[in-house]
Structure formats: structure tokens, C-alpha cells
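User: Could you go from structure to sequence for me? I need the amino acid at each position, not a summary. C-alpha cells:
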């Protein structure tokens, strides 16, 4: 199984397989395991030691809204939360174990927001992510979260790992904006925690 960049035709990920796969109306999701990332240099040299990928969570929307979106979205499915440390998968949660809600107010001209609250159980504790995401496109949003844990994993602080301390990136799906997907990622004392949650309204 492989994934290609449509703009260049180059392989991004190869030699992996998907698990935690699901689809509903306008959105699909899953988790890539045991693959090889080639995103950094796009080389085709066959060196399997480069870019070893323990796991990669993903979702895709088959269509997106043509107008503003507002309303309460509640979760209905999720990939298994995972923890990676030093390139190794060290803990895996349960399929559909992560959950949450989003209250979206995305505007046609931008400047909207999305309040969210997520619950991520993995490695014997539950992480909570809350925040107000900023609208990044007509149907997209990204946020820096307040992250806590019922265990010791956030002692000293948990920080977003999706760039600029961002821990949540979301996309509204469907021409009427009836579904949504969120990928979350953050660093903890256990390692990097990541996953995907999908929502509907």
C-alpha cells in the first residue's frame, strides 16, 4: 500500500497497511502502520531504514461546505490513540475510545472559530484537550490546546506537536457541513500522542 503526492506524483508513504479504517457519507479515516515515510527527500533508493513510520493517523473529506458552517458536532468514531517515542510505538488505545465535541462558527469571509473539547484515553490515563481553534480556511480550523491528564504524563506540560504548538487541526466535511474530522497531536512525558476523531451534527 502507498500514498502519493498528487502534485508531484512522488510517493509520500509506502510499504504499510491501514487499520482502524472507517467511512461515513462524506468522510473517511484510518491509521497507517508499519510503513516508510518518503516525504523528506522523495528518494526512491530502496533503503528501508530511512523514514520508518510506526503509525500515521489520517482522515479525508470527499466534499467540503460551500458556505458558512455553524453548530454543535459530536463524535461518533475515532482511531485508536497512539503514543510514539524515539520512532517506536509504545502504547495503543482502543478504537472509538477517543471522543469529544466541537461548536463551530466558521464564516464565509473567514475570522471564525471552533470551540472544542476532546478526551483521549491511552496508556492508563485520559488526556483532555480544550481550546478555541482559529478558522484557517472556509472549512478548516486549527488550535492550541490546554492539555491535562489524569496521570503524570502532563507534569511539566504537554505541548502541541502539529507546528507552532498547535495540537488540533480540523476540517468540516460535506457540502452542507454535516460532518467533521480532527487530527490531534501533542508531546507528553510518555511520548507523542496522536489520533483522529470524526464528528457529525
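Assistant: Here is the amino acid at each position, in order:
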Amino acid at each position: 500500500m502507498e500514498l502519493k503526492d498528487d502534485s508531484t506524483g512522488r510517493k509520500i508513504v509506502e510499504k504499510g497497511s491501514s487499520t482502524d479504517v472507517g467511512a461515513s457519507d462524506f468522510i473517511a479515516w484510518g491509521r497507517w502502520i508499519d510503513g516508510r515515510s518518503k516525504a523528506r527527500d522523495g528518494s526512491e533508493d530502496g533503503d528501508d531504514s530511512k523514514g520508518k513510520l510506526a503509525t500515521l493517523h489520517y482522515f479525508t473529506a470527499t466534499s467540503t461546505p460551500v458556505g458558512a458552517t455553524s453548530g454543535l458536532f459530536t463524535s461518533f468514531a475515532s482511531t485508536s490513540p497512539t503514543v510514539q517515542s524515539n520512532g517506536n510505538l509504545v502504547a495503543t488505545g482502543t478504537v472509538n475510545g477517543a471522543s469529544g465535541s466541537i461548536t463551530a462558527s466558521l464564516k464565509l469571509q473567514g475570522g471564525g472559530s471552533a470551540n472544542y473539547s476532546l478526551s483521549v484515553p491511552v496508556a492508563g490515563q485520559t488526556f483532555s484537550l480544550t481550546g478555541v481553534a482559529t478558522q484557517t480556511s472556509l472549512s478548516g480550523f486549527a488550535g492550541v490546546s490546554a492539555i491535562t491528564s489524569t496521570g503524570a504524563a502532563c507534569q511539566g506540560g504537554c505541548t502541541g506537536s502539529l507546528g507552532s504548538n498547535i495540537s488540533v487541526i480540523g476540517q468540516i466535511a460535506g457540502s452542507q457541513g454535516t460532518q467533521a474530522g480532527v487530527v490531534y497531536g501533542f508531546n507528553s512525558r510518555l511520548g507523542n500522542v496522536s489520533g483522529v476523531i470524526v464528528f457529525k451534527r
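One structural detail worth keeping in mind: The CA atoms of residues 86 and 199 lie 31 Å apart.
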